[in-house]
């Protein structure tokens, strides 16, 4: 099995494929000012199995297009949405976040939790801005340094994994440079990483290794995940996910 298939196999059954939480999605919704509006059109980009899409569909009067390039995740979301009677509100779309088949100015909001890093923060907001209506909302969570300084080993690890990791003020400056006015920011609390993402994943590692006969590739993935979890447990004061809510400004 190739590495991508192994990663899908490890992550598909998790509650989320990245750090986050339903309460935090709701907080971002509150900050967005969208509550109470009707007939909204929202895209959730890099939706995974749809943790955020499900909250958006429940909390808002909206039709949600949930986009991911992995059909396995979308099938999972499709069956959960049907079970929760939200299938009339959530549509899934297998597409790359780099070339989305959307019309310009067609969305009231674009959501993306723990996914924009795949094409880079600046690149992503530049590419997605055109799909928002004037005054539309962008809500993204993104790997963020929580302090000005940090331990060297942590800095080295995350810079190698994602060279755009930066402080919240730097991220907000990028938003402003690309035609967005920040309207809200918060850092995801530790439990969004530990309770909702890392620890459920850690519990899946042993059965994952069993399923794949402790192959070299599966063992390497499990070791890398374990390393990342330990690093987070040691250094959660310095690294986190920032949740950025911003409004599209006039051209
Ligand atoms: N938003 C979800 C998933 C985050 S993990 C959550 O918070 O749980 C990142 C997701 O981005 C994965 O589901 C992955 O399949 C998707 N992804 C990565 N690169 C992508 C690309 N180029 N186009 C579309 N989706 C992509």
**Which segments are poorly predicted (pLDDT under 50) over 5 or more consecutive residues?**
none
Helix content: 40-55%
Q: How would you name the CATH homologous superfamily of the domain at 17-146 and 163-190 and 238-248?
A: Vaccinia Virus protein VP39
Topology as H/E string? HHEHEHEEHEHEHEHHE
Number of E-type strands: 8
Return Rg in Å: 18 Å
CATH class of the domain at 17-146 and 163-190 and 238-248: Alpha Beta
Sum up the overall morphology in one term: globular
Mean pLDDT equals 97
Largest sheet: 8 strands, mixed
How many DSSP helices? 9
**Can you tell me the CATH architecture of the domain at 17-146 and 163-190 and 238-248?**
3-Layer(aba) Sandwich
Q: Give the amount of beta strand, in percent.
A: 15-25%
Class from helix and strand fractions? alpha/beta
CATH fold-level assignment of the domain at 17-146 and 163-190 and 238-248: Rossmann fold
Distance between the termini: 47 Å
Identify the bound ligands.
S-adenosyl-L-homocysteine
Provide a quick synopsis of the model:
By secondary structure, this protein is α/β, with parallel strands linked by helices.
Question: Topology, pairings included?
Answer:
Layout: H1 3-11, H2 22-32, E1 40-45, H3 51-59, E2 62-68, H4 71-83, E3 90-94, E4 107-112, H5 121-129, E5 132-145, H6 152-161, E6 166-167, H7 168-177, E7 180-187, H8 190-211, H9 216-235, E8 239-248
Parallel strand pairs: 1-2, 1-4, 2-3, 4-5, 5-6
Antiparallel strand pairs: 5-8, 7-8
Helix pairs in contact: 2-3, 8-9
The chain binds S-adenosyl-L-homocysteine (SAH).
S-adenosyl-L-homocysteine (SAH) binds at residues 16-18, 20, 46-48, 51-52, 68-70, 73, 96-98, 113-115, 118.
């Amino acid at each position: 099995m190739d590495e991508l298939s192994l990663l899908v196999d490890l992550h598909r059954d998790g509650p989320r494929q990245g750090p986050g939480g339903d309460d935090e999605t709701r907080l971002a919704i509150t900050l967005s000012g969208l509550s109470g509006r009707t007939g909204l059109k929202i895209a959730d980009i890099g939706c995974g199995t749809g943790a955020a899409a499900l909250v958006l569909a429940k909390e808002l009067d909206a039709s949600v297009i949930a986009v991911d390039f992995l059909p396995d995740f979308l099938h999972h979301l499709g069956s959960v949405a049907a079970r929760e009677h939200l299938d009339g509100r959530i549509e899934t779309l297998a597409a790359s976040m780099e070339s989305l088949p959307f019309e310009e100015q067609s969305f009231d909001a674009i959501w993306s939790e723990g996914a924009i890093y795949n094409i880079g923060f600046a690149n992503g907001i530049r590419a997605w801005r055109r799909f928002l209506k004037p005054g539309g909302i962008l809500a993204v969570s993104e790997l963020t340094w929580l302090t000005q300084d940090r331990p060297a080993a942590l800095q080295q690890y995350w810079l190698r994994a994602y060279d755009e990791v930066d402080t919240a003020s730097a991220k907000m400056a990028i938003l402003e440079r690309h035609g967005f006015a920040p309207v809200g920011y918060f850092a995801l609390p530790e439990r969004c990483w530990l309770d909702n993402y890392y620890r459920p994943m850690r519990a899946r590692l042993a059965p994952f290794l069993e399923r794949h006969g402790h192959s070299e590739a599966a063992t390497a993935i499990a070791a890398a995940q374990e390393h990342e979890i330990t690093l987070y447990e040691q250094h959660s004061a310095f690294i986190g996910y920032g949740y950025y809510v911003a409004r599209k400004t006039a051209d």
